[in-house]
Write a structure and sequence with these properties.
The structure is a single chain. By secondary structure, the protein is an alpha+beta fold. It folds into 5 domains: 73 residues, no CATH class; 98 residues, Sandwich (Immunoglobulin-like), CATH 2.60.40.1220; 94 residues, Immunoglobulin-like; 105 residues, Immunoglobulin-like (Sandwich); 125 residues, Immunoglobulin-like (Sandwich), CATH 2.60.40. Strands 2-9-8-4-5 form a 5-stranded mixed beta sheet. The longest helix has 26 residues.
Length: 527
């Protein structure tokens, strides 16, 4: 192959030089030196015509050779082998994922075209050469393979061998690991559960202990009375959703049966047939949002209602969504979004009530939108008839402490000032006076708001409990957002041990505007 390639490049060079000489002769209005012998009895005009035709032919050849990847044309088909060697192969624990070629390859191009995916996401790991010739590769995952999950080996795009040959490839193999499972195949979970009542439009969901053979499943499934269903499998082939083509008959008892012929991809079967009996009733309502309101994020007092709408929501509030039917947490949470995108945390005091807690601070005075998609699902398997959404504006002034500092300690930023937590903060106090400075997110515009703030400040003696408490003696507002509080008269004690205090702002210190939960900072004051 290398000899063929070298001859090809030599031919290109010779033809290129011939074309250049012919073009030079034509430009100087001279002809190539054709000998006038008995074998060339032609006129000068004829020779000129032949020379021009030869020049055109040479230019065409050079163009074809220059614009064609000769290496790609002449290279024979690339042979690829892999382990797994066949589609949907079940590998044993410890098996290596290998890739090999019939020639030495450029490792960079192979690495760029190779990937392993699981449920649409790339599996992290390293692909490295396995032999000195660069023809064999092994993939080492960053984490252990998960048993009974469906993976896919993909080599797609273009790869190049060390000789420069370019090859288009599309090699794919789905595989899973048996996981060393012992015992028979098992049905782990089902909806409906045995004896459960569902709506006529409900889907049937089954989850197995390992990846299944979908074709064998269809032959092993029986539903009585007869119902025609469409099967939709998860990427890992461990969960299937059966969707009836027509609603099931109301007030009817159905039996779903899985025969012993059912098989997993690893060849395991059920220890005994599975029977699932359920009832199709007429009392399962279509999910509907009955109430959506603001509640105070205070579990100890039962999340008291703040308002019938979300208007004026701020950090520290939760959104309460009350449904008319018990809901499945997973699908309902997945159907819930707050836009602009805000990470959410969900709480379920009961199956009809979903509490939504933003996990990030909401921008003050901004518009947000809460969306509940129609993909939410009740425990009866029903989905809302339409999506639900509500737009709202947050509180215009989000009053939080953005910075806390003392005259003898380090500055605490807003990231450290987590509401409701005790923050350890030492102050080495060598005098009878010290100060605490606070910077707020929003201004205090009048004297009443400032007075309310000062009345919310607390000093509690922790160690010893009889330690004298500091006395506030000065208040200095440098502007509407920053205040410095001066304290003195720490008592006449002479102990070398520190006095430990808890300095805090009690709930509601922001006055009429919203403020964060109680802020607490621990102080250690040395005499």
């Amino acid at each position: 192959m290398s000899l063929l390639r070298s001859r090809y490049h030599c031919l290109r060079s010779v033809m290129g030089m011939s074309c250049l000489r012919a073009m030079y002769s034509l430009a100087s209005r001279q002809l190539p030196a054709f000998p006038e012998t008995a074998m060339w009895p032609v006129s000068r005009n004829t020779r000129r015509l032949l020379a021009r035709q030869l020049l055109i032919l040479m230019l065409a050849c050079v163009t074809v050779f220059s614009c064609t990847d000769m290496g790609a044309v002449l290279e024979p088909a690339l042979q690829i082998r892999s382990h797994p060697s066949r589609h949907n192969e079940v590998l044993t624990d410890g098996a290596q994922i290998q890739l090999s070629f019939d020639r030495t390859m450029d490792p960079t191009s192979v690495d760029e075209s190779f990937r392993i995916r699981e449920s649409g996401s790339a599996v992290a790991g390293v692909l490295h050469t396995h032999n000195a010739h660069g023809q064999s590769y092994i993939f080492e995952p960053a984490e252990d393979w998960e048993p009974r999950r469906r993976y896919e080996l993909i080599l797609s795009g273009h790869v190049r061998d060390v000789g420069g040959g370019l090859h288009r490839v599309d090699h794919r193999r789905a595989f899973s690991f048996g996981g060393g499972a012992e015992g028979p195949l098992r049905l782990l979970e089902s909806f409906p559960a045995a004896g459960q009542s569902v709506a006529p439009e409900a889907e049937i969901r089954l989850r197995f202990s390992e990846a299944m053979d979908a074709a064998v499943f269809e032959r092993s499934l029986r539903i009585e009375p007869a119902a025609v269903t469409t099967s939709t499998w998860s990427p890992e082939l461990v969960e299937v959703v059966l969707t009836p083509e027509r609603p099931l008959t109301r007030n009817t008892i159905y039996t779903l049966r899985l025969e012993n012929s059912l098989r997993s991809l690893d060849g395991r079967s059920l220890a005994e047939p599975v029977e699932l009996v359920f009832v199709v009733g007429d009392d399962a309502p279509v999910p509907l949002v009955e109430e959506l309101y603001l509640a105070l994020d205070e579990p100890s007092v039962g999340y008291p209602v703040l308002g019938a709408t979300l208007e004026g929501m701020s950090y520290g509030d939760v959104v309460a969504v009350r449904w008319n039917a018990p809901m499945e947490a997973g699908p309902t949470e997945a159907a819930t979004r707050m836009e602009p995108n805000v990470p959410l945390e969900f709480l379920w005091p009961d199956t009809n009530l979903m509490l939504i807690r933003p996990r990030a601070r909401l921008e003050p005075g901004a518009q947000y939108r809460l969306r509940l998609a129609a993909t939410a699902r009740s425990v009866a398997g029903l989905q809302p008839a339409a999506p639900y959404e509500q737009a709202f504006h947050t509180a215009p002034d989000l009053q939080v402490v953005t910075e806390w500092s003392s005259s003898y300690g380090a500055v605490l930023s807003q990231d450290e000032l987590v509401p409701g937590l005790i923050l350890s903060h030492e102050v080495l106090e060598h005098h009878d006076e010290f100060s605490v400075s606070l910077l707020f997110a929003a201004p205090f515009r009048d004297e009443a708001e400032r007075e309310h703030l000062l009345n919310s400040v607390r000093f509690v003696s922790l160690l010893p409990s009889s330690a004298p408490r500091p006395v506030l003696y000065s208040v200095d507002w440098s502007d509407e957002r920053r205040v410095s509080l001066g304290y003195r008269n720490l008592g006449a004690g002479t102990e070398a041990a520190p006095y430990r205090y808890l300095w805090s702002l009690s709930r509601g210190w922001g006055g009429s505007r919203y403020s964060t939960d109680e802020l607490r900072v621990m102080l250690e004051l040395y005499r």
